[in-house]
Design goal:
Layout (H helix, E strand, L loop, with lengths): L2 E6 L2 E6 L10 H14 L6 E6 L4 E3 L12 H16 L8 E5 L2 E3 L1 H8 L2 E5 L3 E3 L13 H9 L1 H10 L3 E2 H6 L5 E3 L3 H9 L7 H12 L6 H16 L2 H12 L9
Parallel strand pairs: 2-3, 3-5, 4-6, 5-7, 6-8, 7-10
Antiparallel strand pairs: 1-2, 8-9
Length: 255
């Protein structure tokens, strides 16, 4: 299988398994990713880790052999399919972590950008090189990258198509953490830093932050107040505050 989906304890793993092609994204693989994300959305897990097989590449981008000779409508439908597939990560009822082990180029970086968090090994190389082919990113890169690293840096990355090393990627906020050893193990450890908390509170936080750059500040305050109020009404909030008072670990039930 070129897209693997399985549980690891309370977490889920989606792994691109095409190491001979550096886990490149064919249209068939994008459809398989969409199906996997639909399936995992119904699982009783607390996080999703996305990675690529092998130690050379998370995902080297689109399968270039498939991109030529298409009609204008097919090109547009291809972009829309990639965008819609990666957007499914935003709607998962739990956060996701991209474990970047090697190359993350083009559509591969766009997949990582769609995850809630990104961790990378020291050998990671990241970039959106589409400009070198006379193209631009089409799976969300021009929209997500500025939201992550700012307009100026995103414009420079996209217009030059240059490759970033892991340290620079972390310095500018493209990668949350650099990790040693196995990328999957490190990503699971990272996920466990938040996955034990209330999923309801996590989702309120994700929504509030993700909407912050889409609305004026005063409207953002309203969104935050509304979501904060909803959080106070959950059983988990009652438990969390009681546990703090009692000096014990909270037993969240996602209610």
């Amino acid at each position: 299988m070129t897209v693997e989906l399985r549980k690891i304890g309370d977490d889920a793993l989606l792994r691109l398994n095409r190491p001979d092609a550096l886990n490149a994204l064919s249209f068939a693989i994008i459809r398989d990713i969409a199906g996997a994300l639909d399936e995992v959305a119904s699982w009783k897990v607390r996080s999703l880790v996305v990675t690529g097989a092998g130690d050379k590449a998370f995902c080297a981008g689109a399968d270039i052999k498939e991109l030529g000779g298409r009609s204008m409508i097919d090109c547009k439908r291809g972009a829309e399919m990639g965008q819609a597939t990666f957007a499914k990560l935003d709607r998962l009822p739990f956060a996701s972590v991209a474990a970047i082990n090697g190359f993350a180029f083009g559509g591969g970086l766009e997949l990582a950008l769609a995850c809630t968090f990104r961790v990378a090994t020291a050998n990671a190389k990241l970039g959106l090189p589409e400009i070198k082919l006379g193209l631009i990113p089409g799976y969300g890169g021009t929209q997500r990258l500025p939201r992550v690293i700012g307009e100026a840096r995103a414009m420079e990355m996209i217009m030059t198509g240059r490759t970033l090393g892991a340290e620079e990627a972390q310095r500018i906020g493209l990668v949350h953490r650099l990790v040693e050893g196995d990328a999957l193990d490190a990503a699971l450890a990272f996920a466990h830093e938040f996955s034990g908390y209330s999923l309801l509170a996590q989702n309120f936080a994700r929504e509030a932050v993700s909407r912050a750059l889409d609305v004026p500040l005063l409207e953002g305050f309203k969104i935050e107040a509304d979501l904060s109020t909803l959080a106070f009404r959950t059983t988990d909030a009652v438990e969390g505050m009681a546990a703090f008072t009692d000096k014990r670990k909270a037993n969240f039930k996602d209610e």
